[in-house]
Design brief:
By secondary structure, this protein is α/β, with parallel strands linked by helices. The chain has 3 domains: 78 residues, Arc Repressor Mutant, subunit A; 98 residues, D-Maltodextrin-Binding Protein, domain 2 (3-Layer(aba) Sandwich); 118 residues, D-Maltodextrin-Binding Protein, domain 2. It has 9 helices and 11 strands. Strand 3, helix 5 and strand 4 form a beta-alpha-beta unit.
């Protein structure tokens, strides 16, 4: 069996994960010189350069990337096996999740998971985008980019956008529409989507990385067109647009994991059609780890929570 020096592998994984020799040295309680020596020994053993060093900048070579993809999960598996043999039932899973989904939907529900599975610790990794999945980042991912070699996934949520506003704003809308003889006295069951153009529209650039694109697509899905003179108020993120809507500033677009109007006393879901964005949120994890008890428990619990949320 031709193995590289095994003691060098944790050092390699730490440097690759932290992108720093000094940070890896601090984490492993070694000197930076010792870490550098171990990396050189590993490279000599493999006959390949694993890192590109350009001044203070450090990055993995192609060979380093390939080696890390094999080494990181192997080290994690060895660690889990050692924990079990030491008699500890505690397990730890790193779950990577988009920040909005984590803050608005997942975190309020996590105490229930912890009560049901006290031996499983969930460490959340907040994502600002959807990265290439890797054990270096997390054990499991809540992601819309779930198709990746070596991974399997299960669908939790198909995203759609619906229009919301505050209850006082909704009352003002109805009053104006009745004055214009467009509504009867009863609470309307549906509105003409074009009527929303009479009001301020709160747009979130984070949805489609372009100001106003959310409302343009929503009107297109409703068979209408967003005019160039529409009253748009721009925000960088949905959270800001939702807060503006909550404070009577106009109409925003929301999805099911960020806003539950049935449980929110301040916001109303307007009776206009929703728009499917085309995104599906999946729980994804390595196929080779599909039978791990902690991952199975997390997957079953997330499916249950998604069903309870009406997804």
């Amino acid at each position: 069996m031709s193995l590289p020096p095994l003691k060098t592998l944790p050092a390699f994984e730490a440097v690759a994960r932290l992108n720093s020799f000094s940070l890896a040295a601090g984490e492993m309680n070694l000197t930076q010189s010792a870490i550098s020596h171990q990396i050189r020994a590993l490279e000599d053993s493999l006959g390949e350069e694993l890192f590109v060093r350009a001044g203070r900048k450090l990055s993995l070579t192609e060979a380093g990337e390939q080696f890390l993809e094999a080494v990181a999960p192997a080290l994690a598996q060895i660690e889990r096996a050692a924990v079990r043999l030491r008699g500890s039932s505690d397990e730890r899973l790193r779950l990577a999740v988009p920040s909005s989904l984590a803050v608005c939907w997942l975190i309020p529900r996590l105490p229930q998971f912890q009560r049901q599975h006290p031996g499983i610790e969930i460490d959340l990794e907040m994502l600002s985008d959807m990265p290439h999945m890797s054990d270096r980042i997390a054990d499991c991912f809540l992601t819309v980019r779930y198709r990746q070699r070596g991974y399997q996934s299960q669908r939790l949520y198909v995203e759609q956008l619906f229009a919301i506003c505050s209850r006082p704003y909704w009352q003002q809308m109805q009053k104006r529409l009745r004055e214009e003889k467009l509504l009867a006295d009863d609470e309307p069951r549906s509105l003409d989507p074009g009527w929303l153009l009479r009001y301020r529209l709160l747009s979130a650039a984070s949805l489609f990385d372009r100001p106003g694109e959310d409302w343009r697509r929503w009107f297109a899905a409703a068979g209408a067109e967003l005019p160039t003179d529409a009253r748009l108020h721009h925000f960088s993120h949905m959270l800001l647009a939702h807060e503006a809507a909550r404070h009577d500033q106009g109409i925003a677009l929301a999805n099911d994991y960020m806003i539950d109007t049935a449980a929110d006393p301040d916001l109303v879901r307007l009776p206009v059609p929703p728009m499917a964005t085309g995104d599906e949120f999946h729980l994804a994890y390595k196929t080779s780890r599909r039978n791990e008890a902690a991952i199975r428990a997390l997957a079953a619990w997330l499916e249950e929570q998604a069903a309870r949320s009406g997804w």
